[in-house]
């Protein structure tokens, strides 16, 4: 058969764009469809705009707590949300245009419209056109999870809408305990919003190392964020210029806004997967180690598969798919020791096994941990601590986990991840000469 395209990609986020461009570079005729904006979650309403908000929110603490201890006298300070919002959205638009241009320069045909699978080789666009493709790649990412059981959930906002608010509320209740909820709690508090975080679990940041969880929780309280654990939101009811938020513990909290940050679910709704018989498992598209679905010519990468939901992972999955199918080089993504960060304040960097998981997997382990007040704030009254932890397999002294809470932790963990990925030992860490004075030197001096 002849097809309109060798590859049709549904979803122009990080994974889909990388797959499309690489497939085109291997000589494939490629098309990509995106119903919203080119760039996907990360560029449009995720990592990139969020990091700008993180930067903006850190100035408050620096102005009021850190700068005076270094002799700076700062007068009245003010913040204008609309200025920040508009400048961030301008940058988002610029990056989206770059993604669009790069796709075009790679020879990829772009359809800025919704696409739905009709069968294993045909796709219908929202304008009615039907196109054929030898291979279909689904890269539609995820969408905020809004639970039906919360009465009045339609009154809440998700992480998608935070970036576009007309004005910041005086107060907000954030429901969730994962990295999205934590990051926005710090951001909004830093921008002057009274923040209450409600989480159903006993401790925030489930699946992270226990030392990280405790440290971030303590930092939230120190920054004036109220944290309520072991509670859910049962109901959100409008009142005056805000909402009464009814909790499962019986408490009622008034807030100007309610943010539901309860994670994201794979975006599979309305894709027509059933038309081709694509299998779904636990709400995600089920794929094998090469990102292939149960249908031989249909693949999926990124958050829609719910493996490791990080932008760099989606990019590597997209690249591996393109190399496998269009460059005759079977390639699998390696999911071991993938580093990640939480842009709390101070931020988190982590790679490898937690202490709990390492004990369960190996039995005998050694743990090296330090907690100290960093030099940058030593002249101030800020009591924030840095926490660093190495988890070492006792049988061969290999470092199997590194966990950091402190300024520049994400930058440090990127480098530490190389060592963990390479299987370096604690002795090799120790043999590395320190750079002084730095926080990172503690990683090679722990005893």
Structure description:
The structure is a single chain. The protein is of the alpha/beta class. The chain folds into three domains: about 200 residues, FAD/NAD(P)-binding domain (3-Layer(bba) Sandwich), CATH 3.50.50; about 110 residues, 3-Layer(bba) Sandwich (FAD/NAD(P)-binding domain); about 100 residues, FAD/NAD-linked reductase, C-terminal dimerisation domain (Enolase-like, domain 1, 2-Layer Sandwich). It is about 30% helix and about 25% strand. The radius of gyration is 24 Å and the shape is globular. The termini are far apart.
Write the layout of secondary structure elements.
Blueprint lengths: L4 E6 L3 H12 L4 E4 L6 H6 L1 H20 L14 H25 L3 E3 L3 E5 L2 E4 L4 E9 L3 E3 L14 H4 L8 E5 L3 H12 L3 E6 L10 H13 L3 E4 L3 E7 L2 E6 L4 E4 L1 E4 L3 E3 L6 H4 L3 E2 L2 E2 L12 E3 L10 H16 L13 E3 L5 E5 L2 H8 L2 E8 L13 E8 L4 E8 L3 H13 L4 H6 L16
Parallel strand pairs: 1-2, 1-6, 2-3, 6-18, 8-9, 8-14, 9-10
Antiparallel strand pairs: 4-5, 5-6, 7-15, 11-12, 12-13, 16-17, 19-20, 20-23, 21-22, 22-23
Number of individual domains: 3
CATH topology of the largest domain: FAD/NAD(P)-binding domain
Percent of residues in helices: 25-40%
- Give the tally of β-strands: 23
Shape: globular
Portion of residues in beta strands equals: 25-35%
The largest sheet is: 7 strands, mixed
| CATH architecture identity of the largest domain | 3-Layer(bba) Sandwich
Q: How far apart lie the N and C ends?
A: 66 Å
The CATH homologous superfamily of the largest domain is called FAD/NAD(P)-binding domain
Mean pLDDT: 97
Oligomer: single chain
Structure annotation, total helices: 12
* The CATH class of the largest domain: Alpha Beta
Which structural class fits the helix and strand makeup?
alpha/beta
Rg, nearest Å: 24 Å
């Amino acid at each position: 058969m002849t097809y309109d395209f060798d590859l049709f990609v549904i979803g122009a986020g990080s994974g889909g764009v990388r797959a499309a461009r690489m497939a085109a570079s291997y000589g494939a005729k490629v098309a990509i469809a995106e119903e919203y904006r080119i760039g996907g979650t990360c560029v449009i309403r995720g990592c990139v705009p969020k990091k700008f908000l993180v930067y903006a929110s850190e100035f408050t603490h620096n102005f009021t707590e850190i700068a005076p201890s270094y002799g700076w006298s700062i007068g009245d300070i003010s913040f204008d949300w609309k200025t920040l919002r508009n400048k961030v959205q301008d940058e988002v638009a610029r990056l989206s245009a770059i993604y669009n241009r790069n796709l075009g320069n790679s020879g990829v045909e772009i359809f800025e419209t919704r696409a739905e699978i009709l069968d294993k080789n045909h796709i219908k666009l929202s304008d009615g056109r039907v196109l054929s493709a030898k291979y279909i790649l689904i890269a539609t990412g995820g969408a905020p999870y809004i639970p039906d059981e919360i009465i009045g959930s339609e009154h809440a906002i998700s992480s998608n809408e935070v970036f576009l608010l007309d004005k910041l509320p005086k107060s907000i209740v954030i429901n969730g305990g994962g990295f999205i909820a934590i990051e926005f709690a710090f951001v909004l508090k830093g921008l002057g919003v009274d923040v209450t975080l409600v989480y159903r679990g006993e401790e925030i940041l489930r699946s992270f190392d226990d030392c990280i969880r405790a440290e971030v929780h303590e930092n939230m309280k120190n920054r004036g964020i109220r944290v309520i654990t072991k509670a859910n939101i049962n109901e959100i009811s409008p009142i005056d210029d805000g909402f009464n938020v009814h909790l499962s513990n019986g408490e009622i909290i008034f807030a100007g806004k309610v943010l539901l940050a309860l994670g994201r679910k794979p975006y599979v709704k309305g894709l027509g997967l059933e038309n081709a018989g694509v299998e779904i498992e636990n709400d995600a598209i089920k794929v094998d180690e090469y990102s292939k679905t149960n249908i031989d010519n249909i693949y999926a990468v990124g958050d829609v598969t719910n493996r490791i939901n990080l932008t760099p992972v989606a990019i590597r999955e997209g690249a591996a798919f393109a190399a496998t199918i269009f460059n005759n080089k079977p390639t699998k993504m390696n999911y071991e020791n993938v580093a990640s960060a939480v842009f709390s304040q101070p931020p988190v960097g982590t790679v490898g096994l937690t202490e709990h998981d390492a004990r369960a997997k190996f039995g005998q382990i050694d743990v090296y941990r330090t907690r100290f007040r960093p030099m940058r704030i030593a002249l101030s009254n800020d009591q924030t601590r840095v926490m660093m932890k190495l988890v070492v397999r006792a049988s061969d002294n290999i470092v199997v986990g590194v966990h950091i809470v402190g300024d520049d932790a994400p930058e440090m963990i990127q480098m530490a991840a190389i060592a963990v990925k390479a299987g370096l030992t604690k002795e090799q860490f120790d043999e590395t000469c320190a750079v002084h004075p730095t926080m990172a030197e503690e990683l090679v001096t722990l005893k």
